[in-house]
Structures are given as C-alpha cells and as structure tokens.
Amino acid sequence: MPPLKPYPFFLKFLDTLLVPFMYVISGTFIELPQETHTWNLLKLPLSFRDGIDETKCVRLEGSYQGRLGRNFAGPLFHFPVLPGVGWRDYIVLEADTTGSWSIGWDAQGMSRGHLFQISRLSLTQPQVRVLKPPVGVEAVFFGFDVHGAQVPLKIVGEGRIGDGTYPRVRLL
Q1: Tens digits of per-residue pLDDT, 90-136?
Q2: 88 is in which domain, residue-wise?
Q3: Strand, coil or helix: what is 164?
Q4: Which residues lie below 8 Å from residue 45, measured CB to CB, with a gap of 6+?
Q5: Which one-letter DSSP state was computed for residue 128?
Q6: Is 14 helix (H, G, I), strand (E, B) or coil?
Q7: How many angstroms separate the CA atoms of 133 and 58, rounded?
Q8: 139 is a domain residue
C-alpha cells in the first residue's frame, strides 16, 4: 500500500463541521452518517492493482438504479434524503484484523471513468459500511492495515441507510 500521510488537522476539523449536515442529508439521525468526501481519498496508480491479492477482496456488482445511474452528479449521490437520487443501499464489510486499517475500492464503469482509490480515514473497528455501486459498475473492495499488509475482507451484512440495522458502523 502506498504510504498514507497523516490526515491533516484542518481536514479533520472540516469533517467535524460537516457532521450535522451529513446527518441531515442522510435523512436519519439513528445511524452514523456517511464520512467520505473527496479530500479523504487518495487516488492510487493503476499499477498498484498488481499488488492486490484478489482472494482477500470483495467483488460486488452494482445494484443502484436511481436517477443518477452511473453518474455522480457532483455530491448528489451523498443525498439519500432526495427520493430516487442518493445512493441508499450498502454492504457491511469486515476486515480480518485487530488493528487500524483502511478501506479502498476499484470501481470500473463509472461515468467519471475508473475509480481506484483508498480512504485516508483510519478504521479502528473491523466492520465498515460501503455503498453499493450503480448497475453496470463492478467494484472491488480491499483493505490494508497500518503496516501496509493487505487484510482479508468479507461481507457480513447489508442494509439501507435509515433502516437502523448497523447504526454504529461507520459509512465510508
């Protein structure tokens, strides 16, 4: 895994300021809101894919069929409160690790092209919620610990934003 630079304080502060807004646009206050923002992500070089062990990944075909389709339309996919627009369905992934780790994804077929990135937000719990991609997009989710070792992932659940099934599991 490429080294992740320490997450700057001013970005942590910005994330904290956005939390109330993220609760409002999620349409629910009973579960943690989505945390992913463009500044949280590190774009990875495609050559890095060669170092990922597919047996430790989770591959998922898209199922979102809302108005946005494979388009991001800016940040609108973060707005599940808007009927037919925001992405709502998620899976819960669990990493086989006891320490801090990061989640990444390789999504092919998006309107913006190939998204191959990793979150700079450190996860301290083994489970994380990630949004299901749109129809026509295949996503491969992978994880790496703080030492750069790939951690095996598996799907342990699924749900819909607002259903309260996994209220304390972070959504990235």
Answers
A1: 999 999 999 999 999 998 766 566 678 999 999 999 999 998 887 77
A2: 9-160
A3: coil
A4: 116
A5: E
A6: helix
A7: 13
A8: yes
Element (H, E) at 23: helix 9-26
Look-up of token digits 């970005």:
11
Please give the structure tokens belonging to residue 69.
């389709």
Q: How many domains does the chain have?
A: 1
Overall pTM surpassing 0.85 (yes/no): yes
How many whole angstroms from its chain centre is CA 99?
19
Position 116 in a domain: yes
What is the b/e burial string over 127-148, where b = at least 16 CB atoms within 10 angstroms of the residue's CB? ebbbbbbbeebebbbbbbbeee
Residue 63 domain-assigned (yes or no):
yes
Rounded CA-CA distance 147/35 in Å is 23
Tell me whether strands 89-95 and 153-160 are parallel, antiparallel or unpaired: antiparallel
Tell me how long the chain is. Answer: 172
